[in-house]
Amino acid sequence: MHPLFIIFGFILIIACIGLGAGLVFHKRDIEYKERKNALNRAHSSSGSVEQAETIAKLEDRVRVLERLATDRGHLLADEIEQLRELPSSAVSKENA
After folding, report:
1. 47 contacts 40 by C-beta, under 8 angstroms
2. 94 CB contacts (<8 Å, ≥6 apart)?
């Protein structure tokens, strides 16, 4: 057998091993990125729920303040005292 065929065969075997290893590493990298993106989506969705609840509470408070500021028929101090006496769930139902 000619020595060039042996060298070519050796290079071909090394190339196949290298490509196979590269393929395995590439698949692992893709799986890692998919898991990382899934965790980020799960984390961001739970954060957005908390943010939505906080925004809803703040909007309720702003509505109450706007009503107090624009309501000319009652004294402001009496309204504030009435709101302090109500539980927070009654205030949010009153604004709805």
Report:
1. no
2. 86
Q: What is the pLDDT of residue 32?
A: 96
DSSP state letter for 75? -
Which residue blocks in the chain are alpha helix, DSSP H?
Answer: 3-70, 76-85, 88-95
- Mean pLDDT split into 10-residue runs, the chain, 96 residues: 89 96 96 93 75 89 82 67 72 55
CB 89 within 8 A of CB 57: no
Q: Which residues contact 67 (CB under 8 A, 6 or more apart)?
A: 95
